[in-house]
Amino acid sequence: MRHFSYTRAETVSEAVAALASDPQAQILAGGTNLVDLMKYDVAKPGSIIDINKLPLKQIDELPNGGLRIGALVSNTTVAYDPRVQERYPLLSSAILAGASPQLRNAATTGGNLLQRTRCYYFYDPSTPCNKREPGSGCSAIGGINRIHAILGASEDCIATHPSDMCVALAALSAVVEVEGPQGKRDIPFADFHRLPGDRPESDNTLAQGEMVVAVRLEGNHFAGHHTYLKLRDRLSYAFALVSVAAAMEVSDGKIVELRVALGGVAHKPWRDMLAETEFAGQPAEEVTFRHIAQRLLAGAKGQGQNDFKIPLAEKVIVRALKQAASGRPQVQSVKAIQ
Amino acid sequence: MFNSSKVVGLPLSRIDGPLKVTGTAGYAAEYSAPDMLHGYVVCSTVATGTITKIDTSAAEAFPGVVKIYTYENRPKAAWRDSKWKDEVALPGHPLRPLNNDRILFDGQPVALVVADSFEAARDAAALVQVTYEAGEPHTDLAREQGDSYVPPVPRMQAFMPPKPRGDSEAAFAQAPHQISAEYTIEGEHHNPMELFATTAIRHEDGSYLIHDKSQGSQNSHDYICNIFSLDPETVVVRNSYVGGAFGSGLRPKHQLFFAVMASLDLKRSVRVEMSRQEMFYLTWRPTSIQTVSLAADDKGHLQSVMHHALHATSRYEDYQENVANWSGLAYKCDNVTISYEIAKLDVPTPGDMRAPGAATGITALETAMDELAYEVGIDPLELRVINFIHRDQNTDKDLTSKALHACYREGAERFGWSERSHEPRSMREGNELIGWGVATGIWEAQMSPAEAKVRLSSDGKLTVSAAASDIGTGTYTILGQLAAEAFDLSLSDVTVKIGDSSLPKTTVEGGSWTAASSGTAVQVAAKMVIATLLKAAQKIDNSPLAKATEEQVEVAEGRLVLETNHQVGIALSDIMAAAGLDEIEEHAKIEPDKSIQKKYSAYTHSAVFVEVRVDEELGQVRVTRVVDAVAAGRILNPKTARSQILGGVVMGIGMALHEEGMVDHRTGRIMNHNLAEYHVPAHADIEEIDVIFVEEDDDKASPIGVKGLGEIGIVGVAAAVSNAIFHATGSRIRSFPITIDKVLGATALESETLQ
């Protein structure tokens, strides 16, 4: 860990000003990822802006029946908030599928969006990694890559985004509220994270000096038909090999509206909105689900060790859609998959 | 044969438990000294090659840095290899940290940064610039198989394969049922919770008190005294509490060398603590590739056993363990060929990890036995019962005891094995196929030389002391129980002092031999104290015990009494007062009985029953039930004993499904070197584990009837899990750990075959 300066921001504008004035500055919220990365000498911020005093710890009602979750609300608080459980059980379930109670207690909503990949090479400064050191190369290509991307990867990076919560937020078309030197703006969730392309060092579309202040959820009709299904290398406390956040409205056995987001397969939660609209009106049955899965995975490409994730993803999507359609979501404390 | 006791055999809580749960038990890195310095190790980032340059200038300029050691300025240490050989050293050349510019494995220590705080040392360590001329790494055992060899210098004769018996090739060819398969097990890393650490406290007179994470304080003591030519009398090493080790602490680790080296050089106290990442660059269970061929007649009687084992070792030492010999003694068979080879890789020297060799070899043998059962068409448990033998055919010796039938019977009954349907894929619930698997476990019941002192004070309390180690196993407690038993006291009347090199000599804590060895020493020392009491009692005028012999007396309710009549006796306090003694202390030295060892082999046994549930479509495996029935002689403390087996079973589940050091063979670097990505079972992976200790009387394995429990819990578990997965899915997976991708691959093949 390198030496750094530390400031505690009292207001959002103070934090934004500090962040904007120093390209080496980073925001500290729960610290569950950043502090590890600093210890590993992967993150080397020149200054730390502690935002834990900021008034971003509320979950507020929105007039349209939605919720606005402050950036500093802990993952645990979100998961167990009765309004979230009632209106967005998919989000609650996804959060509980990740990490451990201790980590969820400390981790924040904004921080969850901004956590870095779990690529082995990104965490090991002795190896080349374009995400850590742009231009140094990607060691995961041709290396240990069983947890890596099968969709949207580039020649420069095959890392995945590790979040469970974000997969649900993507499916729910959340909106990320950010504040920067130019003021406030909204970023649709699908546009918040980015694919690696030739700039894998950038995980998201935040501009210099911008910070996440809240995540907004609109009202929806998915509470009856949803699931979060996660496959991993042990039954808890492991990142997803493949995860699926599925939600749908069903009427007369037909899909009215469909949402499917995939985790563990790409540099961002993977969603194909065009495909989703095309399957509206189709019968909510296995054949359809298989077509949806195949459509979502059309461009999938393995890297060798992770080839198995392509057929696995297809099966997980189908199973998740079955769970959602039948109104029997995966219960995260039950390890048998329904 | 053993008296009923108020303490031995009871499920007592460990006496060090309250200290541990309140944080008052001190571990090696928790000791401090005034002006203590901190060392942080810089590790190589290439697996083979030479160091061409080390630039320490930026690190030296870092605030707080005191000195940086590299091979270019390392203080002098012993020159001869023999001085570097610890009690558990291997054939070859022990690693000498910072000895020269050569790199033999990824993660090899290349510099030590010493600073006035841990943080400064760690931060400065990141600034040390090492340039290498890297060679091409060879770390893939599968690719290096062609260069395997029989170890020219055996580590132990017993690890070398027995001579072939019968004609296994011919018998195999002639038998109606044959199976032959290759089994691979990926390298595993011990990863106890406590990181390796040494705090070397230097006193003004130059003497040392060293707190070292180790499985043998005297091994660490002798190692550094030899290397640095220290007067053994001026150095005490302690390992009072050890936060797990699993074999990783048998040999001294480089942090001990570094802490003492820097302390001697700088004349300050020094602590060196490893990072979790460094824990992956140490001792490990080597990657193995094994071939097992079995043949049987139509009734399942084994006709031929052939087992070839290969595992990795380092460039500088020939690590060896007993992988395959178990196949020559587990079951009755007259045609047996066992072979064993190792192959050099650019890796750190492997080392003993819980049930070294057996955990590996029996995983292969017991999976092969299951394959044979299905080839013959009989119940897998029945196959094992049919081939039972109460003899060690490898050495042609009788066994001290083998209550394995009872393990099979009681385990099967508890598990409900009789309800099992033989056909694979025949049990299902919801989306999951259910499978039941069984395996036999074996481990040696060993004794090592040991010493112990027992002291009786005038207040009637006891103190037990020995240089034994408690690596979380319960040694403190069982030694206290044995002493208490001899004096008819409760456990709270006994103080146990262990984990200190100045105490009576004890072999390193390993091989499951500590309870049998140190336990016997304590019992003998206690008897010596009683003999001394008797002599003193007989000097008292009109002593009621005047004619009694040592065999005729015992201690009951604070009195030395006749065994046959407790009314006849004298209070211990009266004996000691009459003799003018404040205390009586005796020092026992015991050795295993060679006359017994000549005639008998001694083993612990187990039968492991496992239920898995496999979501075939998604490849998810859950181990939902385990019953482990163990025959390990006398159980001193069912509570600590059960914990030993539970831990072993959990580790076995890890071997079956999770544990794997992932090496990038392009660089020879292990990539999942942290506990987020190196998976061991999480709570969710562990459901019901039922431990049974079957009755087993054995007065030959050790004088106190104990066989040892540290290893047997892991043996057979991985095989039982893989056998259960086969029973569930019909797919045989011979590569461990059995991860989702392997289940999906195998079941995809299976469903193709079915179509």
Major sheet summary line of chain A = 5 strands, antiparallel
Tell me the total number of β-strands of chain A: 12
Envelope shape of chain A? globular
The top level CATH class name of the largest domain in chain B: Alpha Beta
- Oligomer, anyone? heterodimer
Give the overall form of chain B: globular
Q: Are there runs of chain A of 5+ residues with pLDDT below 50, and where?
A: none
In the CATH hierarchy, the third-tier topology of the domain at 226-325 in chain A is known as Enolase-like, domain 1
Q: For the largest sheet of chain A, list the strands in their spatial order.
A: 4-5-8-6-7
Largest interface: A-B, 34 and 41 residues
Mind telling me the CATH class of the domain at 226-325 in chain A? Alpha Beta
Number of helical stretches of at least 4 residues of chain B:
18
Describe this structure in words.
The complex is a heterodimer of chains A (338) and B (755). With 338 residues, chain A is an alpha+beta fold. Among the domains of chain A are: 5-50, Uridine Diphospho-n-acetylenolpyruvylglucosamine Reductase, domain 2 (2-Layer Sandwich), CATH 3.30.43.10; 226-325, CO dehydrogenase flavoprotein, C-terminal domain (Enolase-like, domain 1, 2-Layer Sandwich), CATH 3.30.390. Chain A is built from 12 helices and 12 strands. In chain A, the strands form 3 sheets. A 5-stranded antiparallel β-sheet of chain A has the order 4-5-8-6-7. A 4-stranded antiparallel β-sheet of chain A has the order 9-10-11-12. A 3-stranded parallel β-sheet of chain A has the order 1-3-2, covered by helices on one side. Chain B is globular, with a radius of gyration of 27 Å. A 7-stranded mixed β-sheet of chain B has the order 3-5-1-12-9-10-11, sandwiched between helices. Chain B is of the alpha+beta class. Chain B is built from 18 helices and 34 strands. The A-B interface holds A 1-3, 41, 118, 120-121, 123-124, 126-127, 139, 142-144, 146, 231, 233-238, 241, 308, 311-312, 315-316, 319, 335-338 and B 45, 119, 122-123, 126, 430-432, 613, 615, 617-620, 622, 657-658, 662-664, 666-667, 669, 671-674, 676-677, 679, 681-685, 739-741, 744-745, 748.
